[in-house]
Specification:
globular; alpha/beta; Transcription Regulator spoIIAA; Archaeosine Trna-guanine Transglycosylase, Chain: A, domain 4; 3 domains; single chain; 393 residues; six-stranded mixed β-sheet; 27% helix; Rossmann fold; seven-stranded mixed β-sheet
Length: 393
């Protein structure tokens, strides 16, 4: 049925615990002619079946699609996509009035490693993080429209920056089904523009939805600073929460323009908001006592383990500046989205920053990714977003 990958003796143990990655060092040999993106059968060196998955050149050589010896075709995609949709309906994210924005597929968390699908109104943005998912993109898109039964009319493929450049796939961003000029979506009753063509991730940070809602509850009467604001998500929730002033900061002029557009969509001509295109560390240097609610949601400081040490120093430095300058009785929302930074790593970095500042600090909430970004219990690496809400005396 499929060409075969044979594992070294004993290297099947993690797969018996249903971990979905096979590293290149675990492979004994492969059938001749296997190409990147192929579906392969994974066997022990003695020939016993282990799994079916996508083959790829690199550290992660096989991403497991199934631990059953089955064909990966239309029926497989339909079953997995339908299960993903049913979970989003069950947790109250799909088919809900006032919310047409949610992640439908979260890679390993939905047993589809290498695939991300975000829904924005009638448009689904599909992102491949493996060659195999890229090869299957058209079949996935067709099945997706069928499974969604009218919820989705357009499929935009956005994988230019997520696939290995050495694979030389010639991928381009663009619609592969339908097409729409309407780039607005709704989250918890608030509207926003989605830059799915050139924006980060799939165009919006859906993973902060619940944390934005929590911030809204703390915003009333406060002076809010939203650092690394990107498209202004935390800012317009703070506005709705009754903040006295809201300032959004990002080093990207494009992000600042999107933030202004999103504020105008929800709060036209509201003088409480200002946006600044400036370096975060430089901006923080000049804010002494000006804000009593600060959001620190930086891009990933570490994208691989080799960058971990410097990343933790960066988180400490950033949080120390906020602790030193936030008003007495202030609240700090601080995050890390680096997968290689564990909850303990991040908490220790923030602890060090608090100690350096000499402020009294209490933890109010420990935050994480929402239900539409589920963590496969057999793949703890999928828990990437962590955050703290802190009260600073």
């Amino acid at each position: 049925m499929y060409r075969k990958v044979y594992l070294k003796k004993g290297k099947e143990e993690s797969l018996k615990r249903f971990h979905p990655w096979i590293f290149s060092g675990a492979i004994h040999h492969v059938d001749e002619g296997i190409g990147e993106g192929e579906v392969v059968r994974v066997l022990t060196v003695d020939g016993d079946f282990i799994a079916v998955g996508h083959y790829q050149v690199g550290s992660i050589a096989v991403r497991v699609l199934s631990f059953d010896d089955e064909e990966v075709g239309e029926a497989f995609w339909e079953r997995r996509l339908r299960a993903a949709l049913q979970m989003r309906i069950a947790v109250g994210l799909a088919d809900v009035t006032g919310n047409d924005t949610y992640r439908l597929v979260h890679g390993e968390g939905d047993f589809l490693p290498g695939l991300v699908i975000d829904c924005y109104g009638k448009t689904a943005v599909v992102q491949a993080h493996s060659v195999g998912m890229h090869v299957s993109r058209h079949e996935i898109a067709q099945t997706l429209v069928s499974v969604m039964e009218g919820r989705i009319a357009n499929v935009f493929y956005k994988s230019e920056t997520t696939l290995p450049f050495k694979a030389d796939l010639g991928q381009e961003n663009g619609f592969i089904i339908g097409g729409s000029a309407d780039d607005t979506a709704v989250e918890n009753g608030l509207r926003f523009h989605v830059d799915w063509l050139k924006g980060q991730k799939t165009g919006f940070f859906i993973d902060q939805r619940e944390n934005r809602l929590l911030l809204e509850k703390y915003a009333k009467g406060r002076d809010v600073l939203n650092m690394f604001c990107y498209t202004g998500g935390f800012s317009f929730y703070a506005m709705r929460g009754g903040a006295q002033t809201v300032h959004s900061v990002d080093s990207s002029a494009k992000a600042i323009e999107l933030t202004r557009q999103n504020i105008a969509l929800n709060f036209p001509d509201d003088s409480r908001h200002q946006a600044f295109c400036e370096d975060a560390f430089k901006f923080l240097d000049g804010i002494d006592g000006r804000y009593d609610l600060i959001v620190l949601d930086p891009p990933a400081f570490a994208k691989h383990r080799g960058a971990l040490h410097n990343a933790l120093k960066g988180y400490t430095r950033l949080n120390a500046k906020a602790f030193e300058r936030i008003r007495e009785g202030g609240i700090l929302f601080t995050f890390s989205c680096s997968q290689v930074v564990t909850k303990d790593h991040f908490r220790n970095a923030v602890f060090t920053a608090a100690a350096q500042s000499g402020r009294k600090v209490r933890i109010l909430h420990q935050l994480h990714q929402p239900a539409d970004h589920p963590v496969n219990i057999y793949h703890p690496e999928g828990e990437y977003l962590k955050g703290l809400v802190l009260y600073v005396e």
